[in-house]
Each structure stands twice: as C-alpha cells, then as structure tokens.
Write a structure and sequence with these properties.
The chain has two helices and five strands; from the N terminus they run αββββαβ. Strands 1-5-2-3-4 form a five-stranded mixed sheet. It is globular, with a radius of gyration of 13 Å.
Length: 109
Amino acid sequence: MTRFTAEFWVQAYLARLRLMDIPAFVTSHGDDTAGAVLVKLNTLDGQACAFHRTYDLMSGTRKWDELAAGAEADVDASIRRQQEFDPDLWVVEVEDRQGRHLLDEPGLE
C-alpha cells in the first residue's frame, strides 16, 4: 500500500474540509515527509477534542482515535505535551459548531 507524505495528506484533508465549508488551518507544521498528524476539533463553545492515528496490530488497520477531549485549554495542553516529545508533529485545527471533522470518511484513514 502506498503511503502519502504528511504534507500531502494534510493538504488533501484541508481541501476536503474546504469543500464542506468547514474552516481549518495548520497550527503546527511538522516534518513534510514523515511527521505524525493530530487533528484538533474546536466546537467554538469552549470545548474541543484531539484525534491521532493509531495502528491496530491485530488487524493491520489504521484508525483515528480520540487523544483528549474536554475544555479547549486542557486539549491544548495535551497537544503541547505531544509536541514536546515529537517536534515533527503536525497539528490541524478544525472549527465546526456541529462537530464535523470528516476523519471517519473513506480515504482519510
């Protein structure tokens, strides 16, 4: 299976969000080739959640799991902790009152 670069995946994700009129922007630019990606969903009500990709060893599949959820400040603190030990980390912030992030759609796994 072909693996895309982090930058390519982020740009494709941002394009898909734009098509759905969901505002999103890169808040931390990681390594263009192999950086991991975190997605922060800001529901604009003081709450947020962060998602990261995980790999299931039993099935060999990748999926998006919730890393942190709750008050936006707490989620931001969790993201900062991740950045402390992974300087290549990308962070994409999605702002949507309806809670849409599209990570569960085909092609984004």
